[in-house]
Amino acid sequence: MNKTLIAAAVTLAATTLSTQAMARDTINIVGSSTVFPFSTAVAETFGRTTSFKTPKVESTGTGGGMKLFCGGVGVDYPDITNASRAMKASEFDACQEAGVKEITEVKIGYDGIAIANSKSAGAWDMTLKDIYLALAKDVPDGKGGFMANPYQTWKDVNADFPEIKIEVLGPPPTSGTRDAFVELAMEGGCNSIPEIKELKKTDKDKHKAVCHGIREDGAYIEAGENDNLIVQKLVSNPSALGIFGYSFLDQNADKVQGAKIDGVEPTYDSISDGSYPVSRSIYFYVKKAHVGTIPGIEEFVTEFTSDKAWGPEGYLADKGLIALPDDERAAVAEAAQSLKPMEKPAN
Amino acid sequence: MNNPADTTPPRRAIDIVNASLKRRYARERRFRWLGATAVTLGMVFVVLLFADIILKGYTAFQQTYIQLPIELAAATIDPDGTRDPATLARADYMKLIREALREQFPEVRDRRDRRRLNSMISVGAPDLLRERVMADPALIGTTQELWILADDDIDMLVKGYIDRNAPESDRRVSDQMIGWINRLEAEGRVAKRFNTIFFTHGTSREPELAGIAGALMGSFYTLALTFLLSFPIGVGAALYLEEFAPKNRWTDLIEVNVNNLAAVPSIVFGLLGLAVFIGFFGVPRSTPLVAALVMTLMTLPTIIIASRVALKSVPPSIREAALGVGASPLQTQFHHVLPLALPGILTGSIIGMARALGETAPLLMIGMIAFIVDIPKGFTDAATVLPVQIFLWADSPERGFVERTSAAIIVLLAFLFVMNLAAVLLRRRFERRW
After folding, report:
1. Least CA distance to A5: which residue of chain B?
2. Which of B112, B371, B384, B399 to mutate to test the interface with A (most CBs of A within 10 A)?
3. What region, left, alpha or beta, does residue B327 occupy, with left being phi > 0 and alpha being psi -120 to 50 degrees?
4. Do B286 and A319 touch (CB under 8 A)?
5. Cβ–Cβ of A251/B172 closer than 8 Å?
6. How far apart are CA B100 and CA A192, in angstroms?
7. What would the CATH number be for the domain defined by B213-430?
8. What interface predicted TM-score (ipTM) does this complex get?
9. pLDDT string in tens for chain A (347-residue length)
10. Is the fold of A26-111+280-337 the same as that of A112-279?
11. I want to staple A238 with a disulfide (CB 3.0 to 4.6 A). Which of A8, A118, A169, B253 is the partner?
12. Which residues form the ABC transmembrane type-1 domain (chain B) (predicted)?
């Protein structure tokens, strides 16, 4: 029996060693789950319309993708990483240390985050401040200090709102959508309160804790990463609100409606021109050292940055991508196609 | 009680029994009733779950097609008349389909409207037409009535998932398109046909082109390799531990650890696989090979425990008889004990495999949550597996993926059902009782 075990171990080691030396002819893409729907759509079209193999796209989250991408140079490491935020300086340094010297940054477009409710109930019109007061863990008590969020109904938050219990379904802390929501909506809302804005100058940590803390008393319900599930729950519970990406709002316009935020409705145009406040830029990063080694990287970047893909009439717009303005798009496309290396990010 | 004036005779045992009898019967009835309720409740939930999945999913086995008379003009497909496969592959089949569609609606002239008209056809339709033409080049130059794959929005409309009475702004299909579809339907040019694409294609971002063949093959390679690795190792380990190993502290320690491993959450095996197989041995990510190695670790304890139980249940008299007629211990085990224990071992292995088929958590760590269009052709091709495919589809915004998610669940459940059925049948067929 021992012989069998040894034999098994030897075969195992042999197979792993032989695969290690194997070259790779498909592009490997990792990164953000927000960019995943767009990246996969381009990958599929690329595979269908060119002689290259269809790239493999993994959904690892922005941070996880950066870690893999900056692991090093070679067939074992991914060629492209998707990100729902810009690369951080620390990640850039990690890349440099591992020998990933030249990286091309490509800004793809925008992604809006919608706060929506069922079509069977009335439409909402709220400000960032309302969102902050309804969902923050601690709110100002009016005497210069903070107290645990006492608001139970929307009427407590703003006298113009109906007396409905606060029930918001949203993504869990592991989600990139949640990070963006906290940074854009919560922080935007809390900076509209003068005394918290003052705090930023005196005590940065406290400011962050106050602005980024989401209440845990049941008013904010973590509904998992599945945005489809949130849509279904909203339909069955008309008094609840949900937080999810714009593409889900676009696909389910017959079931749910987006709330106006600071008077702006979440539409393609309002996110594109930047007037809708809860939107962010999305990116992908290309490892220049792999160009020429892994076939098709340049062609993939060209496909992604062609107007038939990421233009306002392109197939990515159909998947919910908000295109960049025309002149910016042209500039980014030129830089991307010439694989211009990026500078170290400021923070 | 001890009052001497009391004339009642002392209570006999039978009276005590009689007095409590009613209460005891009632208790038993209550317990039976509770048990029956629990079983009924469980059955109701299972039926509800299955009904929900099947009702949501069965429509995915049909797909909407539009019949169009397509002129397979030689000038477009093969201008030189060489029938060279490379030329045939490069031809613009979308143009042929669009021309045929335009002929159905000659009054549509505006560029915008034409775009809308073209959007009723799936972007994958030209590829299907190309396969058709390349398989039978004799079609070139003729006009054929062909069924062309419709876009997922049209599919959803025809299947009734889009409310035609909803305000136009709320649905993805405009009034104009509904008008066109109604006209085509009246002419009998719209039909739902069996969805072969679902079983022959890999995944796609377009619901109408998405299939489970890639995930099925990934699951197949993973499970086959898992079985090849875990069955010999598991049975060998069980045989050694049960029959040959000395009983001492070390074997006790191993036994405790095997039992513990069976209860370890599967995600832990994923982390281990990431650190050891990918990090240390350099096995490529997202391949059936690395998935099978992780699944082997996960199913080994199940197989070892089941095999040991099966070996234990073979009566010692068999061993003694074999040894008595002069068989060596190894011959005793392989010629007599193992064949008798095999039904039990196989049952345990199949149940372990069924668990591995439905597992997602450890695969999260080793890069199987990936969009992979090409159907894997070997153990080292990038692949995904059925439960992961279900997870990815459930997370896709397109409406068409809702029914496909349920359809993929139906396929997965069917496989699990067949595997469990095989386990039961094997046990029935070969089980010996002493």
Report:
1. B233
2. B371
3. beta
4. no
5. yes
6. 59
7. 1.10.3720.10
8. 0.77
9. 455 655 565 555 555 444 444 578 899 999 888 888 899 999 999 988 888 989 999 988 888 899 999 999 988 899 999 998 889 899 999 999 999 999 999 999 998 899 999 988 888 999 998 999 899 888 888 777 788 888 889 998 888 888 889 999 988 876 667 888 888 888 888 888 887 887 877 887 888 888 888 988 888 988 876 777 888 889 889 999 999 888 888 888 888 999 999 999 998 888 888 889 898 889 999 999 999 889 999 999 999 999 889 988 888 888 888 888 888 899 999 999 999 899 888 76
10. yes
11. A118
12. 216-423
